[in-house]
Amino acid sequence: MRLHLLLLLFFCSRLGFCEEPDFLIKKCLSNRYTHQSCSKVFCQPWEKCVEGACMCKLPYLCPKSGSSVCSTSHRLFRNYCQLKTYECLHPETKFLINGTCEKKETFAVSLESGELPSEGIVRVKLVNGDEQAYLCNSKWSITEANVVCRHLGHAQGALHHRYANDSAIRMKAPHCLDVTCRGLESSLSECAFSKRADTHDETPAGVTCYLREVEPPSPDSFECVNGKFVSRSKTCDGINDCGDQSDELCCRACRPGGFHCTSDVCIPEDHRCDGEMDCILGDDENNCKGEESSETQDQGVHRGEVRDQEPARALNDNMDNERRRIKSLIPQITCGMRRNISTRRKRILGGKAAVKATRT
Ligand SMILES: [Ca+2]
Ligand SMILES: [Ca+2]
Per the record, which residues fall in region Disordered (predicted)? Predict the structure, then answer.
């Protein structure tokens, strides 16, 4: 079935003689699954799964370990998980920095050169940075663009991870920074920033945040559960274009670049054999002999980056690694059922361990 779909996609895209096959499962779409549907995906480690939906966890259920973090309200939290449980209930309080709260610390994101306030070239000021910096275009994707737009208050994320202004595109940004997000961060400060030695040929990253009234849906649009419209060609490719993952959760197969979980979810191909269970049944981490690459995509180095490229210097702590660490400390629970836990106990008879009966 999947092979049939992929072959059809190949011939349609190369030869253009037929309509593109539909990767989406219509019946499944009616369930309106999102990144918070724990029958499809794992909840964040600071959430719990209750009757199929991810809900806020209470802070005491977080692991005790981990370093302190500071929130945007300059409140110190014991660790990242505790801040995220608090943010879950008080969304105005977001992550600022790993460490203690020093006065006057700020993290800022702004868009410049746009015709609308919701578009333009992205500029950031890191907590420990003195100046605003551009982001490099070459490693910039819709995943990061969605986080930037959400950070700026656009709940549906980005329309494009580009900004269509010719003069801005021709501009150079030799001192730009790279940023890598997982895609579900609520603040850009949770993403990993790094600086390469040579960014002389770079142009600055731009974004057009999603405003429905500006961009009406086209006939081939897919409507995300959050109300955003994305091109149907962006469904089932492993990339969270919707921002709520609803373009990836009802797929009978995946387009190139996506890995198909048996739960009919598409995840990015590079999440396969990365040491973290992403498919709810763990099939992305099966049959990984010699392919494990856990802990190799950290320290602010962009996923998929070729290892022999110029080294990148991490500019902040990688909170995605911290998320993974917290997740690894929490028992994996699917739909209220603990997974993979089988304990064998000795039979007890009358309060005593059973002994082998001996014939006399
Ligand atoms: Ca997608
Ligand atoms: Ca994985």
Answer: 290-323
Q: What angle do CA 208, 146, 248 make, to 5 degrees?
A: 120
State the Cα–Cα distance between residues 39 and 278, nearest whole angstrom: 13
Cα–ligand 1 centroid distance for 32 (angstroms): 15
CA atoms of 192 and 178, how far apart (whole Å):
8
Q: Which ligand is nearest the CA of 271, by number?
A: 2
For residue 114, pLDDT beyond 60? yes
pLDDT tens track for 295-311: 444 444 444 444 446 67
- The tokens describing 341, both together, are 């836990």
Ligand nearest to the CA of 42: 2
Q: Tell me, in angstroms, the distance from the centre of ligand 2 to residue 50's CA.
A: 23
Look at residue 279 and tell me whether its pLDDT is greater than 80. Answer: yes
Mean pLDDT of 234-252: 96
CA-based torsion, 186, 161, 321, 176: positive or negative: negative
Ligand at shortest distance from the CA of 242? 1
Q: Encoding tokens for residue 132?
A: 């605003």
Asked if 267 and 248 count as a contact pair (C-beta separation under 8 A), the reply is yes
CA of 282 to the centre of ligand 2 (A): 8
Q: Which ligand is nearest to the CA of 257?
A: 1
Three-state SS at 66: coil
CA-wise closest residue to 193 among 177, 176, 173: 177
